[in-house]
Amino acid sequence: MLFEKSGNRLYILLVVVLVITVGGILLKYSGNEGNDVGVGIPALDTTGINRIEMIPKGGSLVVFEKTGEDWVITLPGGTGKKVVADGTKISSMIFTLYELKVINLVSRKKDDFAGFGLDTGATSLKLFSKGESEFELLIGKSEMLSPQEMGTYVKMVSADEVYLVSGFLDMSFNSDLTLYRQTKLTFDGSESWQEINFSGVENISLKRAVTDWLVENKKVDSAKITDYLKQLTTLEVRNFADDIDPAKLGKPKSQLRVKTVSGREFEISAYFNETDTLITSSLGRGNIYRSSKEEPLYFKIFPGLKRLE
Fold first, then answer.
1. Is the pLDDT assigned to residue 72 strictly greater than 90?
2. Distance between CA atoms of 257 and 5, rounded to whole angstroms?
């Protein structure tokens, strides 16, 4: 009986210590400053988002705006140049905000903002729907929580609460615009391609016949055309010539037009200047891709008939 009473007392003592400890931690991180506006991170309704304004750490304002089916980026620098973004990358960016996982509320004190990177050095995000602001977030410092997990400090613009959320958000929101731009020149999946037409330097028309490709009813080399299509459909270009005005490119020297079974089409054009080969694709309107000597693009896109026979 004595041991039973001692055990009960020990159990009660441990509970009291635990309550005091937890209470102290909560008091430490809650503080007595700040406001009650926007407590927690509000749920984001992604369905109507059609404009994003981002000022990345150390960068300038970047605007993403949905125009029809496309997301368009207004590049920073004051030129007002607009280029088509990769829609899947923008959707991924929005989904990252939608699924933010809060690990902990770490502060309500304005004096702590700088320590969490949430002062003037934060990344600012504003998401709009039909002209109305729906979600405004500041992204601060990140830190490693474990060998398998990173965390990032964030706060809503209208609130003082600082949260630690799961994930390395700088991977999705930073000043490297190639993360969001259209870097692919073609549709994925050449299995649906029905016609490939080259014009300019060389005029060739390739047509699919079941699994074969024909030029003037003559079969081209299966291995060579397979390698070419694989290379073309996986080709990504991240070297952009933003200093060049698309309206001043003139007439293309070579063009590639592809038509699919369903009637979808895209077009790739090549232009030559004194130092570079410049490439455009109808999938990434406004983007001009530069092919340097170190990374030649032209023959990856326009191989010539001899390389396919």
1. yes
2. 87
Q: Cα angle vertex 129, ends 124, 135, to 5°?
A: 35
Residue 24 pLDDT > 50: no
H or E element: which one contains 17? helix 2-30
Q: How many residues does the chain have?
A: 309
pLDDT tens string 171-195: 999 888 889 999 999 987 899 999 9
Q: List the domain range (segments joined by +) for residue 202.
A: 190-307
Query: Residue 206 belongs to a domain with what CATH number?
Result: 3.30.1490
Both 85 and 123 in a single domain? yes
Q: Do residues 238 and 156 both lie within one domain?
A: no
Phi, psi dihedral angles at 243 (to 5 degrees): -80, -5
State the Cα–Cα distance between residues 87 and 64, nearest whole angstrom: 10
- Angstrom distance (rounded) from CA 281 to CA 220: 25
Tell me, yes or no, whether 17 lies in a domain: no
Give me 19's structure tokens: 């309550």
3-state secondary structure 177-221: HHHCECCECCCCCHHHEEEEEEEECCCEEEEEECCEEEECCEECC
Residues with Cβ < 8 Å from 28, sequence gap 6 or more? none
Q: Which two tokens stand for residue 22?
A: 């937890």
Listed range (10-14, 90-94, 251-255, 267-271) with the worst mean pLDDT: 10-14
